[in-house]
Design goal:
The structure is a single chain. This protein has 13 helices and five strands. The chain is of the alpha/beta class. It has two domains: 217 residues, Rossmann fold, CATH 3.40.50; 82 residues, Tyrosyl-Transfer RNA Synthetase (Orthogonal Bundle), CATH 1.10.240.10. The protein has a five-stranded parallel beta sheet with strand order 3-2-1-4-5, sandwiched between helices. Helix 7 crosses helix 8 and helix 10 crosses helix 12. The longest helix is centred in the C-terminal third of the chain and has 28 residues. Bound molecules: iron/sulfur cluster. Iron/sulfur cluster (SF4) binds next to helix 10, helix 11 and helix 12.
Amino acid sequence: MAEKSGRVFSGARPTGRQHLGNYLGAIKNYVALQEQYEECVYCIVDIHALTTVETTQNLRHNTREMALDWLAAGMDPQRSIIFVQSHVPQVVELHTFLSMVTPMGKLTDLPTFKERVRQQPHNVNYGLLGYPVLMAADITLYKAVAVPVGVDQAPHIEFTRELVRSFNYRYDTDVLIEPQMVVTEFPKVIGIDGQNKMSKSLDNHIEISATPGETTERVMQMVTDPARVRRSDPGNPDVCNVYSLHKVFSSQEEVDMVNMECRRAGIGCVDCKKLLAKNINEYFAPLRARRAEFSSKDGYVNDILHEGAARARKIAEGTIAEVKEAIGLPE
Ligand code: SF4
């Protein structure tokens, strides 16, 4: 029985096979929220992806791969609505209506927009600027009461709340709901380079659905305490990313052992990594087995995404009808 009433909404871009950072930072939380809220709406936001990707040839493949990881991780299509953003075109309609109450200056002032302009000066498109409006449409279309976000996304939710107030005030209605932020302390997972946040584009990631061999290979490449040059040098686990991951995937006993033995050169980095790889593989074994089973069933993922879209469209159609009525558009 859910503790909290109402709907949760969250979306993620179709980035293909998910890595440890995606899993620990988002997917685990998505699974847990299913127990806490009445209904969760999880959307693969392919339209958002168009604001930054310049080639779309992998979009379908990446959507399927990501959905497979989501489902295998325990995001449950019986309890949650799992679907693809572009399968519910009403979101584009609501985006347009919301854009009429969006001051331009607000969009150009958002730190995320400025950051994107710095990252892709050759491709500053309108979609990039309107991205937060589309995000507001995603959330409000499903009348979500809560949106799980990291601290960096907080300005976008605040922006959504302002848009809702503006819209409701302009059209003298209460049709749109102001969502609450559920600020979650997403752990920042560092990549195998030991420096940057884990990310596919930096190729410093470990995929959750990798084979045991691939996982071990990636773990063995991990950068450790740079001051520990020889096996006989004592190390400092506090500056080592291998140790950070042990804290997630290993037993308390093993974590304590690594912490102690590393400091007195009682364990070498190779053995320490082998232990971590073994534990990561054990942790994900059930997920990987489920994934293989889902993947082998013809049309399984597509059917789930299409059923999810049908449920999402039902809610969306209702909201759009109310929105048009509130605006006073001709019948
Ligand atoms: S023994 Fe383990 S924790 Fe210590 S530096 Fe090597 S990999 Fe890192």
